[in-house]
Every structure is written in C-alpha cells, then in structure tokens.
C-alpha cells in the first residue's frame, strides 16, 4: 500500500480518537490499532503525538475551508450566497463531528502551537466572509455605506455565531445541519441586509448605537 | 492588612499576568512582585499556580455574569433590553481586558479543569440569554411561535457572536465598547425581531430554511 494512503488511514484514525477522547487521553496504541498498522509505523510516518495532532489540525482545517468556499456560489444574490455557505459549513461539521471537535474543542484547549494553528484557519474564514459581506454591501449600495472595520466586525460576529452553533448542534440530539443553518440564516440575514442598505437599528430612546 | 484584601491584591496581579503572558509563561515570582507580597505568601494563601488560575477564572466569570445581568433591565422593550445587555457586556470586557483574556483565551487553551470551569460560566450566560429571548418571543406572539430548541440555538449564536466580537474589539485599536455593541445589535436585532413575530427569512429559490 502506498505511503500516502497509509498516512491518510492513520490520520483518519487519529482524528477519530483525538476528537472523541481528547488530545491527552488519546493513545498512540489505540490510533495504530484503529488504523490497522503497528505503532512504530505511526511514529515512523508522523514522528510524534504532537506532530500527528498538528497534521490532523492542518488536514481538517483545509477540508473545512474548502467545503465553505465550494458552497458559496458567486453570482447568486447575497442572501442565497449566505444560505448556501451556511449550509455547506453546517453540513461539513455535522458529517465530520470528530474533525470539528479536533478544531473547535481540542486544538483550542491544549495551548500552543495547536491554538495558533487553528487560529490561522479561523482568520482565513473571517477574511473570506469579510470579502463576501463587503462585496454584497458595495453591490447593494453604491456608496461604501459600511466602513471596512464594520464589515470585519460583522464577519467576526457571523463566524463566532457559526462556531458556537456547530458545537451546540453536534452535541444536541436531533438538530440537523439544515436546522442549524436556518437558525443562523434567520438570526443574521435581516440585520446584514438592513446594514448593507444603510438602515441600522434605531432605538426609540435616548442613546443611538450608530452615533459614535 | 486583612487576608481577604491581600488575596484580592494577589488575584488582581494574577489576572494581569495570566491575561498578558498566558498561563504557562506567567511566573509566580512576577505575580508576587506585582502584588507587593512574598512568593511564599501567595502559595500560603492560594496553594499553587493551578489553584490561583482557577480562582482567577471563578472571580472573573462571576464579575462578567453579574455585569451582564445588571445591564439588562426587565420591563424595557426587547430591543432596549438587548441593547443594554450588549453594552454592559462589551463595556465590561473592554474595561477588564486581562480578565476577558483569562476567560476567553487562556482558560480555554490549557485543557482541563480550566476549560470546564469557563464552560460553566458560558452555560450560565446562554441560559440567561435563552430566558430573555423566550420571554420576548412569548410577549411578541401569544402562540409559542419559537420552539424552545430554536430559542436555545439563537442564544448560542448570540453568545458566540459576542465572544468573537469582544476578542476582536480588544485586539483592534480604536474599537470602542459602544461600537462593538452597535455592531452586534445591528447584526442580531432585525433577525430576532422577525423570528419573534413569526417572520422567518424566505428564499426566492427552491429550498426553504423553515421547512424541516
């Protein structure tokens, strides 16, 4: 069997064990057994538990970013783009619960370098979402109604909401990917649409959120 | 000086050092020096670096939850409640950047028991927000238009968005607490209001997010 195929089998097993047991409790014995190889072969190919974990983070990050980017179809109206992007994200996290647990729970709770590695992926997604919101806002409104900094803030809010919902959906029996996507679509779209069209929320009372 | 006062001074110093240096790099020498006490006294009062860190998580969690709960004024319209709650949250995280870094960055990136301790606080805030959204939805709409599970999902989305924005605001020069609160208000209110009134987003195309 070619080395590349063997390595993918080892990483499939590692993502499963890391995602379900956690980084510390995961044992290289169990990973080797699940992959159907000897433990020395795992060390030969992937060096150490730390490097294996980093390799899992890299592979799962790349797969998640690719899934979201493939889901968003340029040329669709902004609300459809958001809807398709959210569906792609929640479908991916639902179909890869162990990979998502590695990224969202495990990588962030075991210090460096892992927290930094997953943060690079997060920044990539925030930058992608920032680009989409900015483009939609420019299309809706000839003037750049939304300053760049506001667009980045909205992207941060959307990504943070998506992360929290994906964790909750995977841990709550019976919440489907489509349901999670619909929750976030309903939560976020009306506000984004209003902002893109220069219609911020106006309070009835004294202090306005748009006055700075 | 009474023990309770000394302990608070030690924890003030510890939150500063943990928040700025990170859990691993923080030294007990530096914490003792900043608190103006001897290192043996820190150990005598707070036992170990791990217990000191747990004590910091507990104190900062309690302060954050109290700040958010104090900000929300029952009896106001739902949008004003949300606005006041968001302002209280972002004001607290902006005024206590080291405490927020301990909760949001440090406690979650150093495994158990710390990640679990900060998660208890997070669940408390999600439960509080779930209660507020549920009450507002019942008030807007006699029928329970929003099933309980949907309300919990919305609370998860709002809390996730708030966490991400607070981290971003504290790390981005010149983003004020009011600005962060306004970004999230504009992002979330229109969608929440629509949902409370039974008006979900309807796509122009084929697949509807409200059909399950």
TrEMBL record, chains A, B:
Location of the DNA-binding region in this protein = 27-46
Query: Which InterPro entries does the record associate with it?
Result: DesT_TetR_C, HTH-type_TetR-like_transc_reg, HTH_TetR
* Record has S-adenosyl-L-methionine as a keyword: no
Q: Which keywords, in A-to-Z order, does the entry hold?
A: DNA-binding, Transcription, Transcription regulation
Domain of life of the native organism: Bacteria
Report any Pfam family annotated for this entry. Answer: TetR_C_46
Which segments constitute the HTH tetR-type domain?
4-64
Query: Is Ligase found in the keyword set?
Result: no
Q: Which PANTHER family match?
A: HTH-TYPE TRANSCRIPTIONAL REGULATOR RUTR, POSSIBLE TRANSCRIPTIONAL REGULATORY PROTEIN (PROBABLY TETR-FAMILY)
Q: What is this protein called?
A: TetR/AcrR family transcriptional regulator
């Amino acid at each position: 069997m070619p080395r590349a195929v063997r390595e993918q089998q080892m990483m499939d097993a590692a993502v499963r064990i890391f995602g379900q047991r956690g980084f510390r409790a995961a044992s290289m014995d169990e990973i080797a057994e699940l992959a159907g190889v000897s433990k020395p072969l795992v060390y030969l190919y992937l060096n150490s538990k730390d490097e294996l974990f980093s390799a899992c983070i890299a592979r799962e990050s790349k797969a998640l970013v690719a899934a979201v980017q493939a889901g968003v179809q340029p040329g669709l109206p902004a609300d459809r783009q958001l809807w398709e992007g959210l569906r792609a994200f929640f479908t991916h996290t639902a179909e890869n619960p162990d990979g998502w647990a590695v990224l969202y729970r495990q990588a962030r709770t075991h210090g460096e370098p892992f927290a930094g590695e997953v943060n690079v992926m997060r920044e990539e997604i925030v930058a992608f979402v920032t680009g989409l919101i900015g483009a939609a806002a420019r299309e809706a409104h000839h003037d750049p109604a939304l300053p760049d900094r506001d667009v980045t803030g909205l992207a941060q809010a959307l990504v943070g909401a998506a992360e929290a919902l994906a964790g909750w959906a995977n841990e709550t029996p019976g919440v489907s990917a489509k349901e999670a996507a619909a929750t976030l679509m309903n939560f976020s779209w009306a506000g984004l649409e209003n902002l893109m069209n220069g219609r911020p929320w106006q309070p009835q009372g004294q202090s306005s959120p748009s006055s700075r």
